[in-house]
Amino acid sequence: MQTRLSPGEKRNRKRVAEVGGVYDAAPAPRTPVDVLARREQGREVVPGPTARNKWLVASVVEDAASVVSRIFDEAERRDPGHRRTWVVLVDGNNHQIERIEAEASRRKVKVTVVVDLIHVLEYLWLAARCFFADDTMAESWVLDKALEVLHGHAGLVAGAIRRKATYHQFDPADRAGADRCADYLTNKAPYLDYATALARGWPIATGVIEGACRHLVKDRMDRTGARWGLDGAEAVLRLRALAINHDFDAYWQFHLSREQERVHLARYAPDVLPTAA
What we know:
By secondary structure, the chain is mainly alpha-helical. It contains eleven helices and four strands. It has helices at about 30-35, 65-80, 95-105, 115-130, 135-150, 155-165, 175-185, 195-200, 205-220, 230-245, 250-265, and strands spanning about 20-25, 50-60, 85-90, 110-115. A two-stranded antiparallel sheet has the order 1-2. Strands 3-4 form a two-stranded parallel ribbon.
């Protein structure tokens, strides 16, 4: 409604932006221990794949299907013959996975979908809070289970979590976090083949997109006191993406040519400006 809020509508509500990216990366094989290694424990940290030639897109107007289509457009521009290995990292959103698989099928390109490891760790911590009050014990347990997941045993971890909650005779409320974690690992199991991903040197985390959500979207759109309409927010996001992708100069020349056509050439036939006498 125009004059008052609808039932359940909140003032100054936020809108979620769809963010995606494409980048090149040389394979960097690692082991599960390499992924979880920490310098303070005296382990050597093995670097993962390094993102190169990043291209980003963000929208508060387009739906997930449109943004996924634009991502595939850029990927096909880089690899029109589908000769390279395509790995798609997601945060586990079912709708995004469905759109990605549908787009890949439509374009007849083979993609491997991998769920971001950081989201898996968040669910493991959710289960750990059900079992341990001590943070040190919880951290050790999460590390142990994360290693099992990285070895490709997500289903076994899910079963162990359920059995642990049953063994302690937790009521439904007390075991809710454990059940959520087990459900997540079970439902996402086809996309948690980290053993293969690590052996082939693929990325397993969405750090590129998490960073883009901050410097592309949040740093500009989420300033204190800022209020945005959809059209203005979408225009700013597109301009910021053009600048980050180093395409702004080419866009600006295109913009000037279209403005000249709209303001001047369209008023003369046959699109020829008269010369001054």
